[in-house]
TrEMBL record:
Pfam families (alphabetical): CDP-OH_P_transf (PF01066)
Transmembrane domains' residue ranges: 43-59, 71-91, 139-169, 215-235
InterPro entries xref list: CDP-OH_P_trans (IPR000462), CDP-OH_PTrfase_TM_dom (IPR043130), CDP_ALCOHOL_P_TRANSF_CS (IPR048254)
Domain of life, per lineage: Bacteria
GO function terms (MF aspect): phosphotransferase activity, for other substituted phosphate groups
GO CC term (a single one): membrane
Coiled-coil ranges from the UniProt annotation: none
Homology family: Belongs to the CDP-alcohol phosphatidyltransferase class-I family.
Protein name per its UniProtKB record: CDP-alcohol phosphatidyltransferase family protein
GO-annotated biological processes: phospholipid biosynthetic process
Keywords for the protein's UniProt record, in alphabetical order: Membrane, Transferase, Transmembrane, Transmembrane helix
Species name: Candidatus Macondimonas diazotrophica
High-level lineage: Bacteria, Pseudomonadati, Pseudomonadota, Gammaproteobacteria, Chromatiales
Length: 245
């Protein structure tokens, strides 16, 4: 037991350091970006209300990072992407405007997607935790983008469906064991997901009218709905083959 605790200590220390560093940097940015210290206070509170639960989730999922005893640069990249998303959510909710800043942030996020996986494979630190961490951050991006587009008044509440599908799918897996099975890698799933995220990102460009934003978000939603339905059908079919009549 002592050996196990000792081997896990470096990982937990690195995660705590990463979380504290990211939190301090985020709070510093929000404080400097706010017009006054009093304006920064509610931003900091809202950030912590999202950051702390996310950090707790990461901490509880760490056993899936075994047998690695170090956090690794790949997870630092994923954590950084997630932290930027939370800053975007807090700041964008306070300042609901369309702009090239959001387009640039979303584009940078999408370009960085896959970088963490590449680093993990090259450094030999890939793990089920890292894959799940990356997936959840990608899902969070879709939800945050949808929330901020809704906040601008360009689209209706239906834009949140694509961001909530992931969480609905997880809940459905609690009642339908077939849906909790691991899915094999899928190019179709990756392409549809990235296309949806790119269309939501483009929706922040001030050159598009509300009608165009709604159309792009609608196309993205259609793609991810189709992808989820295909995956759910495949899992159900596989379950029927495994379970004898």
């Amino acid at each position: 037991m002592a050996n196990l605790i000792g081997s896990a200590a470096p990982l937990h220390r690195e995660v705590m350091g990463s979380a504290l560093g990211a939190g301090v940097l985020a709070l510093t940015f929000l404080t400097l970006a706010a017009p006054t210290v009093m304006d920064a206070l509610p931003l900091a509170v809202r950030f912590l209300m999202t950051f702390v639960p996310a950090a707790i989730w990461v901490w509880r999922q760490l056993p899936a990072h075994a047998p690695h005893v170090h956090w690794g640069w790949a997870n630092h990249v994923t954590a950084g992407r997630g932290c930027v998303l939370l800053i975007w959510l807090v700041w964008g909710w306070e300042q609901p405007v369309l702009g090239w800043e959001s387009v640039a942030l979303g584009t940078a996020f999408l370009l960085a997607d896959g970088l963490d996986g590449t680093i993990a494979r090259r450094q030999g630190t890939a793990s089920p935790f890292g894959a799940r961490f990356d997936l959840e951050v990608d899902a969070l991006f879709v939800l945050v983008a949808g929330l901020l587009l809704l906040r601008t008044g360009q689209v209706g509440a239906w834009v949140l469906i694509s961001g909530l599908l992931r969480y609905g799918y997880l809940l459905a897996g609690r009642w339908q064991p077939a849906l909790s099975r691991a899915l094999p890698p899928s190019r179709r799933r990756a392409v549809f997901g990235v296309t949806n995220a790119a269309l939501l990102t483009a929706g922040f460009a001030p050159v598009f009218s509300a009608a165009w934003v709604q159309a792009m978000a609608g196309v993205g939603l259609t793609l991810v709905l189709l992808s989820f339905l295909i995956d759910m059908g495949a899992l159900q079919a596989r379950s029927r083959k495994i379970i004898p009549d």
